[in-house]
Design brief:
alpha/beta; Rossmann fold; nine-stranded mixed beta sheet
Length: 298
Amino acid sequence: MLDVKFTERLLALHYVFPVPLNRLQALLEADPDLQKLEQMPVQEIARYLNISVEKSKRLQENYANTLISPLKQAYEAHNIFPIPFHHPMYPNKLLALYDPPVVLYTKGLVDILKNWRRIAIVGSRQATSYSEKILNYVVPPLIDHDYIIVSGLAKGADRMAHESAIRYAGQTIAVLGHGLFHLYPKENRKLAEIIEQEHLLISEYPPYVRPQKWYFPMRNRIISGISEGILVTEAAEKSGTLSTIEHGLENGKHIFVVPGDITKPLSKGPHKLLLEGATPVWNGYQIIEEIEGFLLSK
């Protein structure tokens, strides 16, 4: 049974101190129910959270104010459903990360998370029409077998992945690198509106948090973490896409790539991954066989 009071305190703390779970671990060990935090000496807070005493004092004050604010009602008014790490809807695979999200702020059809069949599709923001052609071969079989397409709502390959899932009447999850009150890039606003109404938006950041450059590599671990495997379409040899792959490899995910034209710069990333042992695919059935065959053999 979910501890409602602990959830309220945790959401209030995360609202004023939005960090991953590993940053809160020492505090939660000392104060598992967060019942002491309001009266805890600021020096102790500073030690547990590895922050300055001055920052600890501000945090404690902001936390106390947030506790008495109508945070729950505000989220409900904006159709935001927060899923803290102890909630039954929280994807267990994320807890295997070094730095799991404390909360997933969601907007849309939360029940999508009950389906474990999730494939991340990622690639370059400069992805070409070749990525769109790839997806016409890869996505329909995945959708037919009840797989959800996960990506990051960025330009290029991410946008194509989400749109392909929608086009073939499947479901998609977009993981954001900012809070739900903001949107980046702006040209994907219409797509984001469709996803929040008929699919699912996810962020580890409270809604007010604006996009920052370093948040996007952080969100890649969530894209990887909630997925069974990752497919790379087009990517440069040195690409942000490869950070998603690094997270995937660290956590035992299946890595798939579609071979490309050897004369094209955006084929270098996938071909490098092939050299390193990624699985080459040219249709969605290969992905399904690899994943479900692996699960059946466990």
